[in-house]
Amino acid sequence: MRVLLLGDYSNVHATLAKGLREEGVEVVVASDGDGWKNYPRDIDLRRKSLGMFGSIWWFLKILWKFRHFKGYDVVQIINPIFLQLSGQRMLPFYRFLRKHNRSVFMGAFGMDHYWVKAGLDTETFRYSDFNLGNQQRRGDENERFIQDWLDGPKGTINRFVAKDCDGIIAGLYEYWESYRRHCKEAEGKLVYIPFPIVVPDSDIIPHDTECLRFFIGIQRERSAYKGTDIMLRALERLKENYPKEVEIFKVESVPYAEYVRMLDSADVILDQLYSYTPAMNALQAMAQGLVVVGGAEPEYYRLTEKEDHGNAHIRPVVNVLPQEESVYEELERLVHNRQRINEMRRQSREFVRLHHDHRKVARQYLKFWQRRMKEKEVEAG
What we know:
Strand content: 5-15%
Largest sheet: 7 strands, parallel
Number of strands: 14
Shape: globular
CATH architecture of the largest domain: 3-Layer(aba) Sandwich
Number of helices: 15
Structural class: alpha/beta
Helix content: 40-55%
CATH superfamily of the largest domain: Glycogen Phosphorylase B
CATH topology of the largest domain: Rossmann fold
Order of helices and strands: EHEEHEHEHEEHHEHEEHHEHEHEHEHHH
């Protein structure tokens, strides 16, 4: 089987490729590295300039690269917008992939039409990037996403691809639920497969728990949107009240490889306040033996355990509500129970090993791709 993984978010496709290769699959990852995060890829699609001449050069490079994106058994696009292009310009590239390859699958891994729609209905989720209870969350970034994805060109291409593609893979509970509720075309071809993570073989080294080291990653332009502003306020209060027991590592917009190295010095990571589910950053930290404070609602655990046939006995993420006081109370509880931290760190890694191991996830992808291709051939007669 030949597989092309086109585009990347949060290292999902690069990690999946590693698992597929270990299963004997021929894989090519073509992406822009997700900007400054600089995730590994085989073919670089990075756009270095938004100026006229830089854009023309990049567009010609993409046209040249696409000449070679033929003859694959599986093409998986990371999102309906899988290149650094406007929604209006995406359709010819998608049609080219559809015409020249056996099958095309779409990832539901991040911002898209159905995620925005589910958040704005204020009923699908108790809270999300777009709602708190029955109140919509407003803000410059939210407004931009709504304009682009709800009724704009990105929403148009998203709806077309969801209907036309051979399958949709959701990497988080929220994305699965968004498509399940709002995309009738997804019925029969939507699946939830957990994000893939490479779990280290080395043992977790116990840390001295007299002082807990808290890690928080900041994307300054997205701090309010992701809730890190609230989490940081709670963490700084904790430091004021427990100056000898708390140390803070605050990191802003560093490349992925450096980010992973920095995690090794921490005990606890704060991530994704408005999420029901630990995403790639949190899962990577858990694989390295950190305790995650963030989103892990019962709906997520139930879906994960169902897909894993009940093979679960630990729920290690410290779940918090999207409120500063909730975050503070859980952080304070960790300080008061510092002697349990090393056992919680061990459970974090065990959970990732059970549900997110990159080889196990790769086999789930292969099974789904093969099933959908066979169903397509049967339908075609």
